[in-house]
């Protein structure tokens, strides 16, 4: 199905893991995809994969913390119909060990950049009067709490609250704002943790479905939230966690 024909989707952190999977899925659904990441080689590789399947993709190296550079990216790629805020980071550690620098690093990438990148894209959507869809990759940790995740949980809860507020404010402009909240998914970022068999077994015990999530399952959720089929969905969090947060 090519349900996003004629639309442009911009995905941050698109070079690997969830971001790459989401970019590929949006392209498969017919969108022209703008892939943004600090690592040019990774997003160009993803863009080439999209083109090899007949899709349209543009790779634009950009540090999402550089807001002036991001504004220039938007000026260069034209109107954006779908924004996927995927860039993020985590640094699990005990609460008493968290330094101000660690706190700032996690909040800057997960919250501050998401806020102001969304602001830049939405300003253009409002000016164009075309509406749009904003999707932020949150986490199951935006729904619950966990040991050694105090900063990450705080950041993702902030993203969830911001999403609800923006859904209310931007609804009259036809702009929908939602989050995807993945649970444990094996990606390049999480693979080192799951290499620890004790950690892996303990994690699987906590997931009612008894397995890790797949990148493709998260990507499918992004396509749904971008699609006209989700035209009445805003201010929501689509939790994809195998039942982890249901307990």
UniProtKB/TrEMBL annotation:
Gene Ontology BP, a term: monocarboxylic acid metabolic process
Limits of the Ketoreductase domain: 7-183
GO molecular function: oxidoreductase activity
Protein's recorded name: NAD(P)-dependent dehydrogenase (Short-subunit alcohol dehydrogenase family)
Similarity remark: Belongs to the short-chain dehydrogenases/reductases (SDR) family.
Domain of life (superkingdom): Bacteria
Keyword annotations: Oxidoreductase
Classification via SMART domains: PKS_KR (SM00822)
């Amino acid at each position: 199905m090519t349900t996003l024909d004629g639309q442009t989707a911009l995905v941050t952190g698109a070079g690997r893991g969830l971001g790459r999977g989401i970019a590929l899925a949006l392209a498969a659904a017919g969108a022209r995809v703008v892939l943004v990441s600090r690592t040019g080689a990774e997003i160009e590789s993803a863009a080439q994969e999209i083109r090899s399947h007949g899709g349209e993709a543009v790779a634009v190296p950009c540090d999402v913390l550089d807001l002036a550079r991001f504004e220039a990216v938007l000026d260069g790629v034209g109107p954006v119909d779908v924004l996927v805020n995927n860039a993020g980071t985590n640094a699990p550690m005990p609460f008493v060990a968290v330094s101000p620098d660690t706190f700032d690093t996690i909040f800057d990438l997960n919250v501050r950049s998401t806020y102001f990148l969304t602001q830049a894209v939405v300003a253009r959507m409002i000016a164009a009067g075309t509406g749009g869809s904003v999707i932020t990759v949150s986490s199951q940790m935006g729904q619950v709490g966990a040991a050694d995740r105090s900063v990450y949980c705080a950041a993702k809860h902030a993203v969830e609250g911001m999403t609800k507020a923006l859904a209310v404010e931007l609804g009259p402009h036809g702009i929908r704002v939602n989050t995807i909240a993945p649970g444990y998914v094996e990606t390049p970022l999480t693979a080192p943790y799951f290499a620890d068999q004790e950690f892996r077994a303990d994690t699987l015990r906590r997931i009612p479905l008894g397995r890790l999530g797949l990148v493709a399952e998260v990507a499918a959720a992004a396509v749904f939230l971008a699609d006209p089929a989700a035209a009445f969905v805003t201010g929501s969090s689509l939790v994809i966690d195998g039942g982890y947060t249901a307990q």
